[in-house]
Amino acid sequence: MQQQKIGQAWLNSHFPKGIFIIAAAATLLPVVQPPVALLLGIALAQTMGNPFAAITPRITHWLLQLSVVGLGFGMNIYSAGKAGKEGFILTIASIAGTLLTGLLLGRLLKIDKKTSHLISCGTAICGGSAIAAIAPVVKAGEKQISVALGIIFLLNAAALFIFPAVGHLLNLSQQQFGLWSAIAIHDTSSVVGAAGKYGDEALQIATTVKLSRALWIIPIAFISALVFKSEKSRIKIPWFIGIFIVALLLNTWVPAVQQISPLLVKSAKTGLSLTLFLIGANLTRQSLQGIGWQPLLQGIVLWCMISAGALAAICLLG
Protein backbone atom coordinates (compact mmCIF):
# COMPACT_ATOMS: atom_id res chain seq x y z
CA MET A 1 0.00 0.00 0.00
CA GLN A 2 2.86 2.35 0.90
CA GLN A 3 4.62 1.61 -2.41
CA GLN A 4 1.38 2.26 -4.29
CA LYS A 5 1.04 5.66 -2.60
CA ILE A 6 4.65 6.51 -3.42
CA GLY A 7 4.11 5.46 -7.05
CA GLN A 8 0.95 7.55 -7.31
CA ALA A 9 2.71 10.57 -5.81
CA TRP A 10 5.58 10.20 -8.29
CA LEU A 11 3.13 9.96 -11.17
CA ASN A 12 1.18 13.03 -10.02
CA SER A 13 4.43 14.96 -9.77
CA HIS A 14 6.07 13.93 -13.04
CA PHE A 15 3.16 13.30 -15.42
CA PRO A 16 2.27 17.02 -15.95
CA LYS A 17 5.94 17.83 -16.50
CA GLY A 18 6.27 15.05 -19.08
CA ILE A 19 3.18 16.16 -20.98
CA PHE A 20 4.39 19.76 -20.90
CA ILE A 21 7.82 18.87 -22.29
CA ILE A 22 6.32 16.72 -25.06
CA ALA A 23 3.91 19.50 -26.04
CA ALA A 24 6.73 22.07 -26.06
CA ALA A 25 8.84 19.80 -28.27
CA ALA A 26 5.89 19.34 -30.64
CA THR A 27 5.76 23.10 -31.29
CA LEU A 28 9.21 22.83 -32.86
CA LEU A 29 7.77 20.76 -35.71
CA PRO A 30 7.19 22.67 -38.98
CA VAL A 31 3.53 21.56 -39.11
CA VAL A 32 2.70 23.39 -35.86
CA GLN A 33 1.90 27.02 -36.69
CA PRO A 34 2.28 29.81 -34.08
CA PRO A 35 -1.49 30.15 -33.41
CA VAL A 36 -1.73 26.41 -32.80
CA ALA A 37 1.25 26.57 -30.44
CA LEU A 38 -0.42 29.36 -28.48
CA LEU A 39 -3.70 27.43 -28.22
CA LEU A 40 -1.84 24.32 -27.07
CA GLY A 41 -0.14 26.29 -24.32
CA ILE A 42 -3.42 27.84 -23.18
CA ALA A 43 -5.14 24.44 -23.18
CA LEU A 44 -2.46 22.94 -20.94
CA ALA A 45 -2.49 25.97 -18.65
CA GLN A 46 -6.24 25.75 -18.14
CA THR A 47 -6.36 21.97 -17.63
CA MET A 48 -3.26 21.06 -15.64
CA GLY A 49 -1.52 24.37 -15.01
CA ASN A 50 2.10 25.19 -15.75
CA PRO A 51 4.49 22.82 -13.91
CA PHE A 52 7.42 25.08 -14.81
CA ALA A 53 5.80 28.41 -13.92
CA ALA A 54 8.88 29.55 -12.00
CA ILE A 55 11.16 29.53 -15.06
CA THR A 56 8.96 29.87 -18.18
CA PRO A 57 8.65 33.71 -17.97
CA ARG A 58 12.43 34.12 -18.09
CA ILE A 59 12.80 31.54 -20.87
CA THR A 60 10.03 33.27 -22.82
CA HIS A 61 11.77 36.64 -22.43
CA TRP A 62 15.11 35.45 -23.83
CA LEU A 63 13.63 33.19 -26.50
CA LEU A 64 11.51 36.01 -27.90
CA GLN A 65 14.50 38.34 -28.13
CA LEU A 66 16.62 35.71 -29.89
CA SER A 67 13.78 34.95 -32.31
CA VAL A 68 13.37 38.63 -33.19
CA VAL A 69 17.11 38.98 -33.80
CA GLY A 70 16.95 35.90 -36.05
CA LEU A 71 14.19 37.47 -38.10
CA GLY A 72 16.52 40.41 -38.74
CA PHE A 73 18.63 38.15 -40.94
CA GLY A 74 15.70 37.92 -43.35
CA MET A 75 15.55 41.68 -44.01
CA ASN A 76 17.75 44.43 -45.40
CA ILE A 77 18.40 47.90 -44.07
CA TYR A 78 16.76 49.71 -46.99
CA SER A 79 13.34 48.06 -46.73
CA ALA A 80 13.51 48.29 -42.93
CA GLY A 81 14.24 52.01 -43.09
CA LYS A 82 11.34 52.57 -45.46
CA ALA A 83 8.95 50.65 -43.22
CA GLY A 84 10.10 52.51 -40.12
CA LYS A 85 9.66 55.87 -41.83
CA GLU A 86 6.12 55.01 -42.97
CA GLY A 87 5.05 54.03 -39.47
CA PHE A 88 6.71 56.93 -37.62
CA ILE A 89 3.81 59.42 -37.62
CA LEU A 90 1.24 56.74 -36.80
CA THR A 91 3.45 55.51 -33.99
CA ILE A 92 3.67 58.93 -32.33
CA ALA A 93 -0.06 59.61 -32.72
CA SER A 94 -1.12 56.19 -31.44
CA ILE A 95 1.22 56.23 -28.42
CA ALA A 96 0.15 59.72 -27.34
CA GLY A 97 -3.54 58.98 -27.91
CA THR A 98 -3.42 55.67 -26.05
CA LEU A 99 -1.61 57.07 -23.01
CA LEU A 100 -3.95 60.04 -22.69
CA THR A 101 -7.07 57.90 -23.15
CA GLY A 102 -5.70 55.37 -20.67
CA LEU A 103 -5.19 58.11 -18.10
CA LEU A 104 -8.79 59.29 -18.50
CA LEU A 105 -10.21 55.76 -18.43
CA GLY A 106 -8.20 54.91 -15.33
CA ARG A 107 -9.67 57.86 -13.47
CA LEU A 108 -13.19 57.23 -14.78
CA LEU A 109 -13.12 53.55 -13.79
CA LYS A 110 -11.30 54.32 -10.51
CA ILE A 111 -8.43 51.96 -11.28
CA ASP A 112 -5.24 52.00 -9.25
CA LYS A 113 -2.99 54.64 -10.84
CA LYS A 114 0.04 52.38 -11.37
CA THR A 115 -2.02 49.48 -12.72
CA SER A 116 -3.76 51.82 -15.15
CA HIS A 117 -0.45 53.29 -16.30
CA LEU A 118 1.09 49.85 -16.89
CA ILE A 119 -1.92 48.75 -18.97
CA SER A 120 -1.74 51.97 -21.00
CA CYS A 121 2.00 51.62 -21.61
CA GLY A 122 1.65 47.96 -22.55
CA THR A 123 -1.06 48.82 -25.06
CA ALA A 124 0.70 51.90 -26.42
CA ILE A 125 4.22 50.55 -26.90
CA CYS A 126 5.08 46.85 -26.85
CA GLY A 127 3.05 44.82 -24.38
CA GLY A 128 4.87 42.80 -21.75
CA SER A 129 8.27 44.33 -22.58
CA ALA A 130 6.96 47.83 -21.88
CA ILE A 131 5.33 46.71 -18.63
CA ALA A 132 8.57 45.03 -17.52
CA ALA A 133 10.53 48.21 -18.28
CA ILE A 134 8.08 50.70 -16.76
CA ALA A 135 7.13 48.70 -13.63
CA PRO A 136 10.39 49.29 -11.69
CA VAL A 137 10.39 52.95 -12.74
CA VAL A 138 6.99 53.58 -11.12
CA LYS A 139 7.75 51.09 -8.31
CA ALA A 140 4.74 48.92 -9.15
CA GLY A 141 3.85 46.02 -6.87
CA GLU A 142 3.63 42.37 -7.85
CA LYS A 143 -0.18 42.45 -7.96
CA GLN A 144 -0.23 45.54 -10.18
CA ILE A 145 2.28 43.97 -12.58
CA SER A 146 0.45 40.62 -12.74
CA VAL A 147 -2.90 42.29 -13.48
CA ALA A 148 -1.42 44.36 -16.31
CA LEU A 149 0.47 41.40 -17.79
CA GLY A 150 -2.58 39.12 -17.55
CA ILE A 151 -4.74 41.56 -19.51
CA ILE A 152 -2.09 42.24 -22.15
CA PHE A 153 -1.31 38.57 -22.74
CA LEU A 154 -5.01 37.67 -22.86
CA LEU A 155 -5.68 40.28 -25.55
CA ASN A 156 -2.51 39.25 -27.38
CA ALA A 157 -3.82 35.72 -27.65
CA ALA A 158 -7.06 36.99 -29.17
CA ALA A 159 -5.18 39.27 -31.60
CA LEU A 160 -3.24 36.37 -33.05
CA PHE A 161 -6.49 34.97 -34.44
CA ILE A 162 -8.61 38.08 -34.97
CA PHE A 163 -6.17 40.25 -36.92
CA PRO A 164 -5.36 37.89 -39.83
CA ALA A 165 -9.09 37.14 -40.22
CA VAL A 166 -9.96 40.85 -40.33
CA GLY A 167 -7.06 41.53 -42.69
CA HIS A 168 -8.29 38.96 -45.20
CA LEU A 169 -11.88 40.11 -44.78
CA LEU A 170 -10.93 43.71 -45.63
CA ASN A 171 -8.46 42.56 -48.30
CA LEU A 172 -5.60 44.50 -46.72
CA SER A 173 -2.30 44.52 -48.60
CA GLN A 174 0.82 43.01 -47.05
CA GLN A 175 2.10 46.51 -46.32
CA GLN A 176 -1.16 47.65 -44.73
CA PHE A 177 -1.49 44.58 -42.55
CA GLY A 178 2.14 44.69 -41.42
CA LEU A 179 1.80 48.32 -40.38
CA TRP A 180 -1.58 47.75 -38.70
CA SER A 181 -0.48 44.75 -36.67
CA ALA A 182 2.70 46.52 -35.52
CA ILE A 183 0.70 49.47 -34.21
CA ALA A 184 -2.39 47.74 -32.83
CA ILE A 185 -1.14 44.42 -31.37
CA HIS A 186 0.53 44.78 -27.99
CA ASP A 187 3.36 42.27 -27.76
CA THR A 188 6.11 41.62 -30.29
CA SER A 189 5.47 37.87 -30.19
CA SER A 190 1.86 38.18 -31.33
CA VAL A 191 2.77 40.89 -33.87
CA VAL A 192 5.31 38.57 -35.47
CA GLY A 193 2.95 35.58 -35.22
CA ALA A 194 0.01 37.37 -36.85
CA ALA A 195 2.10 39.07 -39.55
CA GLY A 196 4.01 35.88 -40.33
CA LYS A 197 0.71 34.11 -40.86
CA TYR A 198 -0.37 36.88 -43.26
CA GLY A 199 2.77 36.90 -45.43
CA ASP A 200 6.53 37.45 -45.59
CA GLU A 201 6.30 41.11 -46.60
CA ALA A 202 3.84 41.80 -43.78
CA LEU A 203 6.24 40.07 -41.38
CA GLN A 204 9.19 42.24 -42.37
CA ILE A 205 7.22 45.49 -42.11
CA ALA A 206 5.56 44.52 -38.83
CA THR A 207 8.82 43.47 -37.16
CA THR A 208 10.66 46.63 -38.16
CA VAL A 209 7.88 49.03 -37.15
CA LYS A 210 7.26 47.19 -33.88
CA LEU A 211 10.90 47.32 -32.86
CA SER A 212 11.21 51.00 -33.73
CA ARG A 213 8.07 51.49 -31.66
CA ALA A 214 9.68 49.65 -28.74
CA LEU A 215 12.37 52.33 -28.55
CA TRP A 216 9.70 54.65 -27.19
CA ILE A 217 10.06 52.73 -23.92
CA ILE A 218 12.99 55.03 -23.13
CA PRO A 219 11.27 58.46 -23.30
CA ILE A 220 8.05 57.08 -21.78
CA ALA A 221 10.08 55.63 -18.90
CA PHE A 222 11.67 59.02 -18.21
CA ILE A 223 8.25 60.71 -18.30
CA SER A 224 6.86 58.02 -15.98
CA ALA A 225 9.71 58.62 -13.54
CA LEU A 226 8.85 62.31 -13.42
CA VAL A 227 5.10 61.73 -13.02
CA PHE A 228 5.54 59.13 -10.30
CA LYS A 229 8.51 60.98 -8.77
CA SER A 230 10.85 58.00 -8.92
CA GLU A 231 13.82 59.51 -10.75
CA LYS A 232 16.31 57.20 -9.03
CA SER A 233 14.79 54.06 -10.61
CA ARG A 234 16.82 52.29 -13.26
CA ILE A 235 15.39 52.24 -16.79
CA LYS A 236 15.76 49.02 -18.78
CA ILE A 237 16.75 49.67 -22.39
CA PRO A 238 15.74 46.99 -24.94
CA TRP A 239 19.31 46.06 -25.96
CA PHE A 240 18.24 43.33 -28.40
CA ILE A 241 16.97 45.98 -30.82
CA GLY A 242 20.59 47.00 -31.40
CA ILE A 243 21.51 43.41 -32.24
CA PHE A 244 18.52 43.24 -34.59
CA ILE A 245 19.93 46.27 -36.46
CA VAL A 246 23.33 44.55 -36.67
CA ALA A 247 21.59 41.51 -38.19
CA LEU A 248 19.95 43.79 -40.77
CA LEU A 249 23.29 45.32 -41.70
CA LEU A 250 25.04 41.96 -41.98
CA ASN A 251 22.29 40.52 -44.17
CA THR A 252 22.39 43.62 -46.38
CA TRP A 253 26.13 43.85 -47.03
CA VAL A 254 27.80 40.51 -46.15
CA PRO A 255 27.31 37.81 -48.83
CA ALA A 256 28.42 35.02 -46.49
CA VAL A 257 25.63 35.94 -44.06
CA GLN A 258 23.10 36.05 -46.89
CA GLN A 259 23.86 32.41 -47.64
CA ILE A 260 22.91 31.22 -44.16
CA SER A 261 20.15 33.77 -43.50
CA PRO A 262 17.30 31.44 -44.65
CA LEU A 263 18.36 28.91 -42.01
CA LEU A 264 18.55 31.60 -39.33
CA VAL A 265 15.11 32.95 -40.23
CA LYS A 266 13.62 29.45 -40.21
CA SER A 267 15.11 28.82 -36.77
CA ALA A 268 13.72 32.15 -35.55
CA LYS A 269 10.21 31.26 -36.69
CA THR A 270 10.50 27.91 -34.93
CA GLY A 271 11.63 29.71 -31.79
CA LEU A 272 8.62 31.98 -32.08
CA SER A 273 6.24 29.01 -32.03
CA LEU A 274 7.84 27.78 -28.82
CA THR A 275 7.68 31.32 -27.40
CA LEU A 276 3.95 31.55 -28.05
CA PHE A 277 3.43 28.12 -26.50
CA LEU A 278 5.18 29.28 -23.33
CA ILE A 279 3.15 32.52 -23.29
CA GLY A 280 -0.04 30.48 -23.54
CA ALA A 281 1.18 28.17 -20.79
CA ASN A 282 1.55 31.17 -18.48
CA LEU A 283 -2.16 32.03 -18.86
CA THR A 284 -3.19 29.73 -16.03
CA ARG A 285 -6.40 30.09 -14.05
CA GLN A 286 -4.43 31.53 -11.16
CA SER A 287 -2.84 34.23 -13.32
CA LEU A 288 -6.23 35.29 -14.68
CA GLN A 289 -7.99 35.34 -11.33
CA GLY A 290 -8.33 38.63 -9.57
CA ILE A 291 -7.78 40.79 -12.66
CA GLY A 292 -11.01 42.69 -12.04
CA TRP A 293 -13.49 43.97 -14.57
CA GLN A 294 -12.36 47.61 -14.47
CA PRO A 295 -8.73 46.99 -15.57
CA LEU A 296 -9.95 44.44 -18.12
CA LEU A 297 -12.44 46.95 -19.52
CA GLN A 298 -9.72 49.57 -19.74
CA GLY A 299 -7.48 47.16 -21.64
CA ILE A 300 -10.24 46.18 -24.08
CA VAL A 301 -11.35 49.77 -24.74
CA LEU A 302 -7.78 50.94 -25.34
CA TRP A 303 -7.10 48.00 -27.64
CA CYS A 304 -10.28 48.56 -29.66
CA MET A 305 -9.50 52.26 -29.90
CA ILE A 306 -5.94 51.84 -31.15
CA SER A 307 -6.97 49.01 -33.51
CA ALA A 308 -9.86 50.90 -35.10
CA GLY A 309 -8.00 54.21 -35.24
CA ALA A 310 -4.86 52.74 -36.79
CA LEU A 311 -6.86 50.71 -39.31
CA ALA A 312 -8.87 53.77 -40.38
CA ALA A 313 -5.72 55.87 -40.79
CA ILE A 314 -3.91 53.18 -42.79
CA CYS A 315 -6.88 52.62 -45.11
CA LEU A 316 -7.28 56.38 -45.67
CA LEU A 317 -3.60 56.77 -46.45
CA GLY A 318 -3.84 53.87 -48.89
Shape: globular
Low-confidence stretches: 5-11
Strand residue content: under 5%
Number of strands: 0
Return the string of H and E elements. Answer: HHHHHHHHHHHHHHHH
Helix content: over 70%
**What separation lies between the terminal Cα atoms?**
73 Å
In the residues, how many domains can be counted? 1
Largest sheet geometry: none
Radius of gyration, in Å, reads: 20 Å
- Chain-averaged pLDDT: 85
- Class inferred from helices and paired strands: mainly alpha
How many DSSP helices? Answer: 16
Fill in the keyword field for this structure.
mainly alpha, 81% helix, 16 helices, 318 residues
Kindly describe this structure.
It is found in: Cell membrane. The chain crosses the membrane at residues 19-42, 62-81, 87-106, 118-138, 144-165, 177-199, 211-228, 237-256, 296-317. It holds the Pfam family Cons_hypoth698. This protein has 318 residues and is mainly α. It has one domain (66-317). The protein contains 16 helices and no strands. Helix 6 (113-126) packs parallel to helix 16 (293-317). The longest helix is centred in the middle third of the chain and has 28 residues, at 142-169. It is globular, with a radius of gyration of 20 Å. Mean pLDDT is 85; it is low at 5-11.
Short description, anyone?
The chain has helices at 2-26, 34-47, 56-72, 77-86, 88-108, 113-126, 128-138, 142-169, 174-184, 188-198, 200-214, 217-227, 240-253, 255-281, 285-288, 293-317. It is mainly alpha-helical. It has one domain (66-317).
